[in-house]
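Bench notes, afternoon.
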Amino acid sequence: MKFPDMQLLYKAVFSAVIGLAFFPGINMLAQNGTYELKNKNGSYCYISFMKKGNHAEAEIFAWWNNPNAQTGSYYGAGTLISNKVSLKSNENEPDCKVTLSLEQKKLRASFDHCAVDHLPEDFNGSYSKITDATAGDYTVSAAKSYFHKKPNAAAKLNSYLVKGNMVTLNLDRIEAGNWVYVYYKNPAGKETAGYILLSNLSKLEK
C-alpha cells in the first residue's frame, strides 16, 4: 500500500479513537428495551420501550407496594421529535399525558393527570435499562429451548419448545438480565410457563 493511503487510514483510525474518547454519548441514546424506576418506598415502574424510525410505542406497568396491591398501567404510541415523544392512547384516560425523553442510555418519563390510570407523579423521573427484552409476542428461534424453573442454567426443566413456537412475555414478569419468563399455549389449549433465554427468541412485529 502506498504511503498516502496509509496516511488516510491513520487519520480515520485517529478520528474514530478521538470520537469515542471525547464524545462517548454519541449514538448512545435510549434504545429498545425495558427501563425501570425504583422509589425509596419500594414502589417501582417498568417502561417497555420500542422505536422504529421516528415511531415509538411504550407499555407501562407500575407497582405501588401498598397493602391493596395497587398497580397502574398504560399503553400508547407517538412520533419522536427531537428525542422526545408524547404518547397517545386508545386504552387509557384521554387526560393522561405521558411524555418520554430519550437520554444517554436512559429514559425520562413524565406523567401528568394520570391518577385515574394509577400513574401519579411519584413515577416521574429517570429510568435505567434493565434488559433488551420488551413485552409482547416472540417466536422461538433456537432448534430446541428448555424451560427453566429459575433464571439460571442449573434450573432446567424437562419441558421445552422448538423453533417456530410462539410465546408471550408480559411486562409485569420482565426481570433484569438475559432470562425472560414466558407463557406458551399448545394447540390443545394447555399453558406452560417458565424462564427461557432471551437469545433463543425473536420478537414478532405488530
